[in-house]
């Protein structure tokens, strides 16, 4: 197979959007998308306090099973 040939399904894949690692507290509480800026655009426009807190990972998030 040549390098420029695509197999079935490869041509229809869309590039993934870049995900931000954390949402601010206000966006997380409201369950809306956060842009990750500091302050985020939503908090800035609503004049809310924009805080990013470091949450400790639990066993499920780290992929550890009992």
From TrEMBL:
Keywords: Nucleus. The keyword Methyltransferase does not apply. This is Putative transcriptional regulatory protein C3H8.08c like. It comes from Verticillium longisporum. The lineage of its organism: Eukaryota, Fungi, Dikarya, Ascomycota, Pezizomycotina. Signal peptide: none annotated. GO terms for molecular function: DNA-binding transcription factor activity, RNA polymerase II-specific; zinc ion binding. It comes from the Eukaryota. Residues 23-52 form the Zn(2)-C6 fungal-type domain. Pfam families: Zn_clus (PF00172).
